[in-house]
Amino acid sequence: MFRMMTFTETQTPDDYPELDESYNSPPALAQECKSFKWKVQVIDSVGMIEENMLTTKDVWKLQNRQVIVHFDGDTGQPDEDSAGLLGSWLGQLSTDVNLLPINYSDGRLFPAHRKYLAWEVIKAKFWFDDPLIRKYYVISVLGSRCKDLKLRLWRDYHLNDRTETVENRPTNVPADQWRDFVYFRFSDKWKKDKTGRVPCRAEFFIATRMKTDGSFVTDDAKKCADQLTPLLNQNSSSQVSSNVVASLNDEYSQVFGPECSGRIRCIGRGPTPSKLVKRTNQARYEAYLTANAEVVQMKTKMTSLETQVESLTGIIQQLLGNKTNDQIRLW
């Protein structure tokens, strides 16, 4: 029975493994650990801090010691080498399908006790200055990594037929999870953008606030969508050609206002307004180069055509001159 859209758990399973015993090595589905080492600070159970060069694999082996994660005061995001190590390790944790099953189509349906346990696993390996504040960011990153895993599994194992795909189950993925996952991906509710164009922020907002029947989740969402739609229609041609997700004065910012410092709405945690300025200027510069290149190409073609016309004119004149001379000799 297909249950991916509504599958929930109301009780914490009794067979959850002990953290110290089960989380000392990467999950079976994790991609191979890289040998790259990050320079980080490690704190032990009595508060002693020392610097270490650690790989992702080393983090799994930590016992009664945690990697200190440093956060930028302005952006509220991890920085320095601890950020890279945390992100890489979360990518591996996301592949633990026993802890984080893949048969959930929506993070809002994900059981709270599983998020709680995932956070406990993370805190056993990493130290945060304010866990209550940092939890939201870290769990959101973990959620993104879980989506990446689903994309990777679908890319590597899906076939043209639903039944064949169910049978082509990856090793270490439970049969019920894989079946639910495949049934959802083959359902009508799973729509893909086949145009190859990345949706802009306004399009993303409308798509994520609209139900399958065409209605909106709230009246406020509908009001915002009603403001965004005509702006998108006005700029539809430039939107297709530029393929820019966000810009300083795009449709989204016209409706919701300018960005605050530290983050850009609707495009993830990494980009910041200062980067958006650079990206906007770069997009404009690239557009200028493209237009300028087209002009240069047209001028080159015109010059080539003019040269050909001059050459043909000379040949015609020469032919006419020879014909005239022949007529004169005949007289």
UniProtKB/TrEMBL annotation:
Pfam families assigned: Transposase_24 (PF03004)
Domain of life: Eukaryota
Classification via InterPro entries: Probable_transposase_24
Name of the protein described by the UniProt record: Uncharacterized protein
Source species taxonomy: Eukaryota, Viridiplantae, Streptophyta, Embryophyta, Tracheophyta
